[in-house]
Predict the structure.
Amino acid sequence: MARVSQAILLGAAAAPVAAVIVGLRGGQAPAESVYKGAIVAKAGALSSFDLGCYMEADPSPLETGGAKGRSYRGLASTTVSGRTCQNWLAAHPWEIGITPTQDKKTKVDAADPESEEMVDWGNGLGNHNYCRNPGQEMEGPWCYTMDPNAEHEKELCEIPKCPPHARDFHEEAKDLKSHVEARDCQCADQLYGSTETTADTSVALAGLQKS
């Protein structure tokens, strides 16, 4: 009886693993049609940092080719319907055939190592299944799905748009530095607002006893 119970428990534990294996292979596809490389994917909900956001347009003259989320490099790998994205280098269930292109970074002034960089965004594809918009054919990042149904071959991913004027922390730090007059001054009011308090913060002294 104990052996039968143990077998039942082992079978129940193995069921989710079998389901995962079938899901990765995309149903009943023959083994030879399944991509053999390692498929990179993250399980569970993504943090806001990993999910990121995408730019509708290039945010500055220093960037080109990144509109409509082509510059998105986040880790989202599921679509708006919850379907898992296909690896961009895989050939099943969909033949993708898009060649990965790299981002190109160059200095505005090649002779100045401190010069700002210009970025010509590539398509962001590689050995992964993260949402991208390689040809800017959709309004935002998308992917081929693992669903063999033609109606769900491609789907948009649920990724927020970046705010039009994202905070520039480097510039804010420079502005703060210019407003603080000196490093050895009494600058607490400038940094923290005020050092004054209206509360009674005095501490009563305990009675002293002579030895």
User: Anything to note?
Assistant: Confidence is low (pLDDT under 50) at residues 1-43. The chain has four helices and five strands. Helices lie at 2-25, 48-51, 169-179, 188-192. Residues 62 and 192 are 35 Å apart (CA to CA).
